[in-house]
Design goal:
- The protein has 70 residues and is of the alpha+beta class.
- It has 1 helix and 4 strands, in the order βαβββ.
- The strands form 2 sheets. The chain has a two-stranded parallel ribbon with strand order 1-2. Strands 3-4 form a two-stranded antiparallel ribbon.
- The chain starts with a strand and ends in a 13-residue tail after the last strand.
Length: 70
Amino acid sequence: MPIVLVNIREGRSVEQKRAMVEKMTEVICETMGVKPASVRIIINDMKNENFAIGGTLVCDDPSMQLKPKQ
């Protein structure tokens, strides 16, 4: 049973997460020869206050914020 952990920053929509897990499941099944029901994907949605880049919390620098797709 493959178990995949995905760490992403907050700001992704449920639709984006749904699309990601569907595609990831397809690839895992194709490459590992398992059935979709055996694939487990855990998404850790991190708040910007819990993620830093270059010593700065993302919540403290607006330029590091995820930009919504237009």
